[in-house]
Design brief:
The chain is of the alpha+beta class. Helix content is 26%, strand content 28%. A hairpin with a 2-residue loop joins strand 2 and strand 3. Bound molecules: adenosine-5'-triphosphate and magnesium ion.
């Protein structure tokens, strides 16, 4: 085996932090000479990054092969005709990158390939006896993202593993889906990622139909809640919030003067009560133009995604619309609602007997308003954002909050595409039925960024062995003579033992070499210098712990092999 010489490596490092990079992963991948920007959302992977990408892809391949999922490759270009058949040519919107060829025939650069794979199998998977089948590819995908940003995190061209399963029965789809969930958890763990499988839909259709694999990181774009006790985890946008709401003292309906109160925080302070004991009212107009006030626990916010599931393309009322509806900003509530205004309330309030609400009168609130006695709710809705401190819907334990990077998603598609595109098979009973599908995606390039987000420090990247571009960097303190020859010798022996080795053979000051070794973040550094050679020792530094120790040159290969080879499997999946 060969080792790589740093003097020949194309890894143009940057001395300064690039100003455009907000996230650690973006900044460090640029600084370590691993990626370069071509245009917004388009990046070149330089040799070091490409080595990591290939390792991530291979982990993905091994885990897919283990569940009989087969790798293949389809064209990136997709015919508009297929997108018309599925109905997504119009539905996909501006994210789909479209163009015409010289004959004015329309195409799109694939953002995902449900149509392609459904088309591929529809004339050949004809009998239940051929099912199930799972196929996947690892390929560049294109999405004209509104805001491409954060380097590899949200690109317009990115590397994705996309897979599709075709089954005859729901049970078979469930099996394929469960196998993929296992493979995804193992994939994340083997890449060194602390990741949570997170329910990605509210489960309204019932059961578990989609899970996102979220690498925990403060820089993540997704907000999550999770339970330490039972393992429940959900996107705050998908989760139904179960929260402790505090009843107001149950008594007569009491009108209280609350002057100069403009927020829930003010109100709680004024009355000396927790915010959870108040009720917040949000005024909106739904997609049909109907005015609503939506009552939610005082300490929770309405969530845009969930709210639009209920009210369609809604908007919050403007000052003019509030006036027109007869509503008073800051003093709205469900009692004595103006004519024509509907009242909705979040299901988190369903069991609350006594509410503290606005009086629909400027400067006044009502205490101990009771459902049924003092007001009615026209519709119960699920619209608030779950948050840390809410209770777990499974076990009642208190939920924690975290942010996450979505590295992968598995999804039970059912017959959405097969029905639209006429992909049917003959079942055992002789009947024609649509194929039952699942789809499974992993963002390979985003995973690389997520690994760096989780594994870095002040000095640079700290690669987990499993995805490190090189596993060992041999640093020669001289660029010629006895020390250099010894370093070459060590590099050869380590490479012969099957380790991925880089030799820093440059005529640079040791300080420069060490700083770059830390920046590039190879898991092990072996320093060969004059002093150590005298006693037959090399200084070995572990990048992750910073610990340095002297190891005898003739024990180095075995010693490093023992550290590195088992670590190639990454963290073991739980
Ligand atoms: P997001 O919500 O982050 O836009 P998505 O849910 O639209 O992602 P999927 O359609 O589920 O993405 O694609 C599968 C995987 O591809 C995602 O889990 C993610 O890891 C990756 N991915 C999606 N969009 C991008 C992008 N613009 N750049 C890099 N990776 C991406
Ligand atoms: Mg997704």
């Amino acid at each position: 085996m060969n080792y790589m010489r740093m003097s020949r490596l194309y890894a143009p490092t940057l001395k300064e932090d690039p100003t455009e990079a907000e996230l650690a992963s973006h900044r460090l991948l640029l600084r370590a000479g691993m990626i370069r920007k071509e245009a917004a959302g388009l990046y070149a992977y330089l040799p070091l990054a490409w080595r990591s990408i290939r390792k991530i892809e291979n982990i993905c391949r091994e885990e897919q092969e283990a569940i009989n999922s087969q790798e293949m490759m389809t064209p990136i270009l997709t015919d508009a005709e297929l997108w018309h058949q599925s109905g997504r040519w119009d539905a996909y919107g501006p994210e789909l990158m479209r163009f015409s060829d010289r004959h004015d025939r329309e195409f799109a650069l694939g953002p995902t390939h449900e149509e392609t794979f459904t088309d591929l199998v529809r004339s050949e998977l004809r009998s239940y006896k051929q099912l199930p089948v799972t196929l996947y590819q690892i390929q560049d995908k294109f999405r004209d993202e509104l805001r491409p940003r954060f380097g590899l995190m949200r690109g317009r061209e990115f590397i994705m593993k996309d897979g599709y399963s075709f089954s005859a029965t729901q049970e078979s789809l469930q099996e394929c889906y469960d196998e993929q969930k296992n493979a995804y958890a193992r994939f994340c763990a083997r890449c060194g990622l602390r990741a949570l499988p997170v329910a990605a839909d509210s489960g309204q259709i019932g059961g578990d139909t989609s899970v996102e694999y979220m690498a925990l990181a403060d820089a993540g774009e997704a907000a999550l809640v999770y339970c330490d006790e039972c393992g429940f985890a959900a996107d705050t946008e998908a989760a139904t919030a179960h929260c402790e709401v505090i009843d107001d003292a149950v008594a007569e309906l009491t009108r209280i003067e609350t002057p100069d109160i403009s927020s829930i925080a003010d109100l709680a302070t004024f009355l000396g009560i927790p915010e959870a004991q108040t009720r917040k009212a949000i005024a909106l107009i739904d997609s049909d133009g109907k005015p609503w006030i939506v009552m939610v626990p005082g300490d929770h916010e309405i969530n845009d995604v969930k709210t639009s599931h209920v009210f369609g393309e809604y908007h919050l009322m403007t000052d003019e619309e509030l006036e027109l509806a007869g509503l008073q900003k800051g003093f709205m509530g469900p009692v004595n609602v103006p004519e024509g205004v509907f009242v909705a309330a979040d299901i988190a309030l369903k069991n609350s007997a006594s509410w503290l609400v606005g009086a629909n009168e400027t400067g006044y609130h009502l205490r101990s308003a009771q459902l049924g006695r003092d007001f009615e709710i026209n519709q119960w809705v699920d619209v608030i954002t779950a948050k840390a401190g809410d209770t777990c819907p499974n076990c009642g334990h208190v939920l924690s909050g975290a942010r996450g990077i979505e590295c992968g998603q598995v999804f039970q598609l059912g017959t959405k595409y097969s029905e639209a595109m006429g992909a049917t098979f003959t079942d055992a009973d002789g009947k024609e039925k649509p194929l039952i599908m699942g789809c499974y995606g992993i963002g390979i390039s985003r995973t690389l960024a997520a690994v760096v987000e989780q594994h870095h420090d002040e000095a640079g990247i700290v690669w987990p062995v499993s995805v490190a571009p090189y596993e060992v960097e041999v640093v020669s303190l001289d660029a010629k003579g006895e020390v250099f020859e010894a370093a070459e010798n060590v590099a050869t022996k380590l490479a012969d033992a099957g380790l991925d080795v880089l030799l820093d053979d440059r005529k640079e000051r040791p300080g420069v070499k060490f700083a770059e070794a830390d920046l590039m973040g190879f898991p092990w550094q072996v320093v060969i210098g004059k002093r150590g050679l005298k006693t037959g020792m090399a200084e070995v530094k572990c990048r992750a712990t910073g610990k340095r120790q002297d190891i005898a040159l003739d024990e180095l290969v075995v010693w490093l092999g023992e550290q590195i080879v088992p670590a190639r499997m990454g963290l073991l999946a739980k």
